Amino acid sequence: MSMKKSWHLNRRTALKAAGVSLALPWLEAMGTPTPSRALPRRLCAVMFPFGIAMPKDNAADREWGWFPTGTGPKDYRLSSVLQPLEPVMQDVTVFQGLSHPRCRAMNGHDTGDTFLTGNNLAPVTYQNTVSLDQYAAREIGRHTRHASLTLSTDGGVGPRTRTTTLSYTDKGQPIPALSDPKQIFERLFGQDGASRRDRESLQNSGSILDLVRDQSKSLHRHLGVADQRKLDEFETSVREVEQRVERSRSWLDVPLPKVDRDALALDATIDAPKEYLRAIYDLQFLAFQTDLTRISTYQIGSYGPSRARKFPGVLGLKADWHGLAHGAGKKGGAEKIGRFDQFLTANLARFINRLKDTPEGDGTMLDRTLVMYGSSNSRTHQNRNYPLLLAGGRQLGIRHRQYLRFDEKTPMSNLFVSMLQGLGVETEQFVDSTGPLAGLS
Amino acid sequence: MPRFVSILLAIGVSTGTHQLAADAPNFKKEIQPILKALCFDCHGPEKTKGHLRLDQLNPDLVKGDTAEEWHDVLDQLNLGEMPPSKAPQPNAQQRAALTDWIQGALRDAAAARRFQEGRVQTRRLTRYEYANTMRDLLGVNLDLARDLPPEPPSAEGFLNNGATLEMSPTQIEVYLKAARRALAEAIVTGERPKEFAYTQTETATGRLPNRRVAGHEPVRPEFILDLKQFPRHGEFELKITARAAIPEGGGLPRLRLTMGHVPGIIHVPRGTIGETDVTPASRTYSFRGRMEDFPQPGPIAFGNSGFKGLIVMMDFLDADGNELRYADRTYPQPPPKPPKNKPAPKVEPVPFGKRLDILIEKVEFRSPTYTSWPPPSHQRLLPETNATDELQRVRELLPAFMRAAYRRPATSAEVEQTVKLFGQVRPRVNSFEAALRETYASVLVSPYFLYRVETRSEQPTTSSPRLTDHELATRLSYFLWSTSPDSTLAKLADAGTLHEPAVLRREVARLLADPRATEFTDRFVDQWLDLDALNRVAVNPEFFPSFDNRLKDAMRRETQLYFAAILRENRSALELLRSDWTIANRALAAHYGLEGPRSSAFERVALLSRERPGGLLGHGAFLLANANGEDSHPIKRAVWILDRLLDDPPASPPPDVPELNPENPDLAKLTLKQQLAAHRKKESCANCHRGIDPWGVPLENFDAVGLWRTEVPKHGKRPAVPVDASSTLPNGRVIDGVQELQKYLTTERRDRFAHALVKRVMAYGLGRTPDWGDRDAVETLTKQFIESDFRLNALITAFVQSDAFQTK
Hints:
The structure holds two protein chains of two kinds.
Chain A: H1 11-17, E1 42-47, E2 92-96, H2 132-140, E3 149-152, H3 181-190, H4 196-220, H5 225-250, H6 273-289, E4 295-299, H7 311-314, H8 321-326, H9 333-356, E5 359-360, E6 363-364, E7 369-374, E8 388-391, E9 402-405, H10 413-422
Parallel strand pairs in A: 1-4, 1-7, 2-9, 3-4
Antiparallel strand pairs in A: 2-8, 5-6, 7-8
Helix pairs in contact in A: 3-6, 4-5, 6-9
Chain B: H1 3-10, H2 27-38, H3 67-79, H4 92-116, E1 123-124, H5 127-138, H6 169-186, E2 196-200, E3 223-227, E4 235-245, E5 254-260, E6 270-277, E7 283-290, E8 310-317, E9 357-367, H7 376-381, H8 390-406, H9 412-425, H10 432-444, H11 447-450, E10 451-452, H12 469-481, H13 487-495, H14 501-513, H15 518-528, H16 551-568, E11 581-584, H17 586-592, E12 603-606, H18 620-625, H19 634-645, H20 672-681, H21 683-692, E13 711-712, E14 721-722, E15 726-728, E16 734-736, H22 737-747, H23 750-766, H24 775-787, H25 792-801, H26 803-806
Antiparallel strand pairs in B: 1-10, 2-9, 3-8, 4-7, 4-9, 5-6, 5-8, 11-12, 13-14, 15-16
Helix pairs in contact in B: 1-24, 2-4, 3-4, 6-10, 8-9, 8-10, 9-10, 12-13, 14-25, 15-16, 20-21, 23-24, 24-25
């Protein structure tokens, strides 16, 4: 029998493969083709469904509730669920009492759609409106290769009222999310625009899209009203891609940043939530670090059918996330969902830490990045008092290490206004806001 | 009385729990008095709290614009917020009358609005339609839909609904990229690429991760093939010659192939090539795939890894899919060093033939796999012409390509427009072929290709305009094959004879007899019955330690193949509700406790026991997907039956659904059925749940993985209790257990089931939700379907012949 010793590895490469170390220097030379030399301001919004446990303050299992105890703003103690954030609390504010007033009367499972839009869905058509990230991307997205990055565990858009994306265009159309780490990596780092062939191909794309748009215009006249509306979607999409092609052409002479794909767990699938969530956060971090985009959204699971419903089961908890959330009020239920929520927090904390560990200008990346995290349910099905927190942005005028409590009169969109102002996007109002959020700046 | 209602009554279709508008209570006589008694004091002429006057709120939701207000009223009622607790409360009957009326009126308003705004006729191709169409058009088999976002399902669960199918910039980018990728394969330039070929009769060995680390499963292949050098791109073929040793009466063992590389000792990124049963007689098994679909090492060697190639790994499985692992086996993995001072235990190797085993005799690999150069796709897309200059040649090539892509002849203006594009592109690229690829790519991102276009007729007509023969061919082909019309259909459409009833009948028969009709049976059944829900339920291993998740795929297959057999063998569709047979492979049969199948192939199995009823209600796909992974879930099962089988979906739950009070210490002691009963006692929950729960309770004999039980196992404080599967339907009918439910459905509800199935087939075939304009068609087809003794074949034929199918 032929014995071939074909593949031997040493320990160092093994560690590298596990994604242990990866520190990219900030590449000044990469920059943007725009003349602006100002340091970037960034936004990342993360949502998870079904809410959290809310045991009473005197309950024995209070530590597995999501919200801190105490009266705030400086008097607070983190529960076990948020404990992973303790080391970075100087960069975190936890909120209590915020929600979107217009969404309170909606079905308890419908509010994932409106987490970043703040509007009630129109009856029958479920028409939505622009989301926070896309609102910000109009301004901020102009500076980067990708205006924004939309991610979710399930990908695509999903069914209305149970969508699998947080991002909505100006017209309220859901933006399909990417879910597979490999696919996301390819989208970000896959195409290097420097070669002659890419130049040709972009030119050709321009001509092709031109032709297709002409065809679409002439087809328009031959269609009924409902069909015309469908074709409008097509035309708008083609126009948007034409603009993207234009933008790519302006990026042609800017080399893509090089990253080591082996340092990322790109093969992680949704069946291994730990590795998967880590890979997704890592990709967002890399996208920010290399300034390929400054805006990202990330929806973990969905209020409807989602493969992420199985996450808790894989971690050795009760199998179904939704069931776990429903059981939060039962005996021992708070701990069960609390442990899972703690796992989600730990993943977030790791992401925040990576931003904080990366110097930028005279501070860190975190100082100029707003990370909003939370759910649009408190108890499951309750569209009030969202569990919410904001991390980062000290150099954007955000005050932290506090627990801010609000009554129901304060709309969550006030937080959006504060965030947009911090990001330098001039905003007086977002949907139903009444001003910036008190106590945050 | 409107005509559709009379037809409906004539054939005795029961209308389920909600009522049609015409049957609905008279608003003035029955609803307004209740509102007057309970609401007008605060929402009437005297006081108008919340700016709401119910005495003036227009009850005609179809013509008026009060749907939103009525929706609020419904929510307030359901939540128990209104009337306020101090005020007189509606009794159960009044409450039900109000909520039923508002729900019915809202549904009618939604349907009417959809109809008024016009139907969406122009449907984008779904992901799978797109992939099939590209494959058939270009002659290359690539996974082209991979990067397209998943489709949002319509209200009835269909993925091909024109109104829900959307377009986004991301998709346009993917379409263009996919077109270029496919055309680069289909139209080639240059010399025939070098072929890589390897043959091995012995396994290679090396160091592979053999423990579970950081979430990565260990790899312990039985046989390894080294691919030291390999093409990064293109099709490969793997031929495995092997035979099996099987103890008396055992099932066939299986061979599983994966391919990947070895970047470190932590994990081996790999993709599955395939699996096959292995027979005792030596045979050669062939597998195909594409190199670029498998994880490959980076172009630069990783770390100091000596091996930069790929490896193909083979695992042996028993018939149930468990890995065969023998202690005496010399795996390609070097054996672990024995602990010090302890001699390694001596294990005598067992010779082949003494136990379940596989012997690999030879493994052959080659890539790429061209049989000719240029490949057939190239010859098809770029046939020789007599043209002397390039523009002339493009002018000759384009009409045929555009005819196939647009599913109709292209106009000369369209051809010229595309020739012009070629003219723009040609100077930028260095070959005719490259320019032609870009030109063809433009056709493949055209709205005429990406959408199934049905144009409005130029002259306004009183009746719905008829489809052209080309549009008809397209509808038919996507309905039954999920792809564009083949050359026979195309010729009949060109000749303008397809719509002739005899021709059409013959074509439907031909399409259904073709293997491609599995596209219809698989897709329709998947979407109609929401089989994807199987993947959304995690079976809790604490409750079902021996449940193997691969059974979910087998369950899905069972239901797909069961439906296909009923269609193919021209059996009654009532067998979907009740029969004495099913279709299973060995693993699924073993799960169900049935005997017969020896391999992974699916075969027909007779059901003789009460514990395994035939029909969808006994299928694991239904029972498991509509449970919660731990216990049965009567509500989910009930909603599935009402929605999918009876087309009577319950309204979605109101906002802020209050939970059962978890403080109640008694609750934990109750079985789920008893908890549901407690739930129904709450007035706000009762409205809906008394119409839902009773449908799921008769299935209580099936646990969360679809197995028969007579006892609900102990849980927490609640002791084990005998299953109580008796229930009282909303109409007072007592049903005890699944057999009685099946009997009830196939006798007293058979017409309602027929009605539901007709509507779902129509929704799938038309790519839209049947609306007000389809009422007559639904009832006529239902009647015909019942008269045909529930033959699916007859239903499909009649549907294709109907005006609903042939008009816009």
